[in-house]
Amino acid sequence: MSENLPSEDAPPPEPNHEVPKDDLQTRIDGSIKRQFQPPSEPDLSFLKEFRSEAKTESLFKEERVAAVTSDRARSEWSRTRLVLIAVAACLAWLIVGSQFYFGQRQKNQAVAFKPQPLTLAYRKCVQDGFKPYWICEDEAIFASTFRVRQGMAMNLIDLPDQYRMVGLSYLAGISRNSTSLLAEADGVPVVVFVDRLERDWHPPTGRFEDEGLSVSRSERDGLVFYEVSPLDEAVISPYLRPSLQVDVNGSNESPDNE
Known about the structure:
The chain has helices at about 20-35, 45-110, 120-125, 140-150; strands at about 155, 165-170, 180-185, 190-195, 205-210, 215-220, 225-230, 240, 245, 250-255. Strand 5 and strand 6 form a beta hairpin. By secondary structure, the protein is α+β, with helices and mostly antiparallel strands. Helix content is about 40%, strand content about 20%. It has four helices and ten strands. The chain has a six-stranded antiparallel β-sheet with strand order 2-3-4-7-6-5, sandwiched between helices. Strands 1-8 form a two-stranded antiparallel sheet.
């Protein structure tokens, strides 16, 4: 037993520095991983914020464009609506005006072409106040009225002081184109119906005692004159004569040259 014991003078045994193979490989693998470790994922949060801002701006632009488009559409619709209202109003006035015009025309034609005693037209005129449709104090316009309606310019020639012209009316009587002269003789109402001779339907003439009126007839220069009044004879129509026409345009024209 004593032979195997180390002597006191022998050196101490060297430490065992040999590393197990498994631990060595693990260390090598860890070193490689540390050297070739991929970089950390970059921070892309700023891209999210940028995308959010871009999306917000895009939505704002779209809303602004939609608002502008809507405003333009409303403006165009407002203008269109005003135009439609104006057109509708014009059509309404046109319809109403045409109905009134043609209604009045038919009414006038019915009165004009419905023969009736001239004494009836006279009495109605007096009952309505013996007021003319218009007072014609201009001789040129007076003459032109007869020229346009009867084809002959007429004037009252040298009317005596006791006679007074009241004005002109359109009481029909002979035709719808008849011109009626309203006058007074010593304050007595007188109506003279004037028209073309070919339109004369020969209404009754003479003295009508039951009405207290007289109807006298005369014709000259292609015209026919019926004078109605309480007087026994015609006092105004003899002064209604063809004349040299001085029309409103300033030209002088003799009716005999037509």
